[in-house]
Amino acid sequence: MKNLQKVVGVSAIFEALIYIAAFVFFGAFWAYPSAGTASDKMAYLAENQLAFSMIYFLMYVMFGVFLAVIVVGLYEKLKSTNNPIVKVGSVFGVVWVVLVIASGMLANIGLSHSINLMDLSAEKAFDMWRVISVLIESFGGGNELVGGLWVLLISLAALKAKEFSRGMNYLGLIVGASGIATIYPDEVLTEIFGVTQIIWFVWLGISMLGQSNANKSI
Q1: pLDDT in tens, 45-74
Q2: 72: number of CA atoms within 13 Å, CB side?
Q3: Are 196 and 152 in contact (CB under 8 A)?
Q4: Do the beta carbons of residue 192 and residue 174 sit within 8 Å?
Q5: Fewer C-beta neighbours within 10 Å, C or N terminus of the chain?
């Protein structure tokens, strides 16, 4: 259990770093021609396919791998409370892992197929990419309902069991509520979820690592 706590703590820190890397990449380096033609957009995606594939692999696939560790670790930590909320919350956590990883795989494979269609027609290629983008946003990019439910339920269980600090658990409730709120399609809500979850992941990571070191010294 001590080793699992340490791995969960490190994984939570990595999740926060992945969020930050994504914000920096799309804020400072990504210059997608939103107002351009279908040909302009597909040409930009083709020129930046490697960078796009790498950041999406990091944002979704690797994020999902670390998330799986955290979901299992928090379940193991809270299962002794015998609170049904822990089991229900963990189910949503597992579903989120699947959706996130699937989104990353869909993005990279879908982009490759869309780019291959450019020889036939840039418009058809872009139409295909637009459909794929909607699926990605629905599964794991623009709708954070499932992730929000996981954080909310786990935070409620931890609050009742007096695990972690009250501040961290109350923050988890805010993160969860903002994730659920993304069922309304507004980019601001998604950004709020992302920013607050960065803080929650860092706090969780520090807490788990601190508990692991404390147990080691006993």
Answers
A1: 999 999 999 999 999 999 999 999 999 999
A2: 15
A3: no
A4: no
A5: C
